[in-house]
């Protein structure tokens, strides 16, 4: 350990062979004979060592750099590209074989990619994510590493490349911030028992910041050994062993906000748990160290739903802070510390909602289709089931309406779903009920007609064993107090009837099996501008480009369709520039501008000219900002390159 469970053993065998055959010796991957020699490396570095210039794809520019060299030097270049490409777990084998196959005509006569090397292309070390935009830096790193390895073997002997920590020092001597992801991948691939498979520098920093106080981690002398210590902690200090920091039970602790269930736990438990073991006689009976904390917390808080996952999250947070799962004081401290950041709405004292039919569970297939984690989608569905009404809010094109419709299609029958869209002219009479003009025998008259709320409510009452869903798109664009009317009361007190404005003689209840999902574009209106009564009646779920599940969605979509990562890199850069310019997260732009249903590569120039810049012109209207000069495509591309040179790139996953 930490060998990656998803990585083929023969990939590790390949990198061991590459280190011995090509770095220590002067051998080759595609043929017999001496290819990885100092002479050939120096010759290749005259062109290969420079940043790939000009337009075109990475492979088109690479070919232009290789074609002027003798065949044996070209073979060296192709083999270096193979080593880099093999590490990319999130590039398909088909794409790898196609791209590498297009370079085979550069090889000496009779030389081809060996079958065993072609076969292992269907695996990889880790997900490179947007880091794939820096392949030119990665191949330059491999070239520099090979040259430095030859010098070390000549000066210090083969031991310099046989000892993992001396090899690590050699890598450190040639790595830069731009190629750090590839450097970490090479270290792990060559010495998987000493160097971690987490290759993203950003993720490493987050993980160690969160777990750094644990004694076993704090005692380790350097980053690599600290990462090994974190894995040891996850295997030995929790109720059940966890192999990966990317596990759903662990990742929220170090990479992102706490789960909604954890926030609920600390908000209630912090008021009920004793301050420290043995110090609060009025508190609940304290456990002895051998009692299952799960059972203790269940008894204190009086619930059983979802506690297996919550206990694990509690255990991870306690272990990260230096305690163990049986450290009661550490658990209390963790709960109280987390509780300090949980807002409490003192006005939120309505009754518990009436129970209704359970919603369908989220499946792995749905999660794969939506490119979101099953655990996040299940939490969303559970929240809807518990609260009955929620709002998905966030900047434009973050998938709010798309997600609402996909959840509707999965958890509800089609005939039990109704979608409406609010707008400034929408009224109570449109939504609930009102008089509508009609003609009878040529005479104009008015009849009382039900709106979509009453129609769907009637259907829900007639089918109490089935859940029904009302989707309100652009909920914040309407005059909500005017549209909702008595619905304010009914959303909170579902079991109590009211008499409506027009059909006053008839009592109306909002059935327990009617659910409401609204979508809200925060570019139009902030949540803070919604009246408090409405905010209290809905749960609010943010979909923002800088938090999961929207963060990384575009990259996952590009990976699914074997497309280059540049759109993701540019969108990340643009959103950072927008937030730096204004400080408003709601200025961020969602990923769906770059995604279509056919999986085709976006035309960046068209998207930028006809979607991005007009949107930004509206956002910055009246501020004096020259949107074209500041945010045009070429400027953002230059900024992405500049940031790549100063910040180690890369999302990496399991």
What features would you describe in this structure?
The protein is of the alpha/beta class and 654 residues long. The protein has four domains: 9-199, no CATH class; 201-344, no CATH class; 364-542, Rossmann fold (3-Layer(aba) Sandwich); 553-646, no CATH class. The chain is built from 31 helices and nine strands. The strands form three sheets. A five-stranded parallel sheet has the order 2-5-8-1-9. It has a two-stranded antiparallel ribbon with strand order 3-4. Strand 6 (498-499) and strand 7 (507-508) form a beta hairpin. Helix 4 (71-86) crosses helix 7 (135-156) and helix 28 crosses helix 31. The longest helix is centred in the N-terminal third of the chain and has 22 residues, at 135-156. The radius of gyration is 30 Å and the shape is elongated. The protein starts with 8 loop residues before the first helix and ends in an 8-residue tail after the last helix.
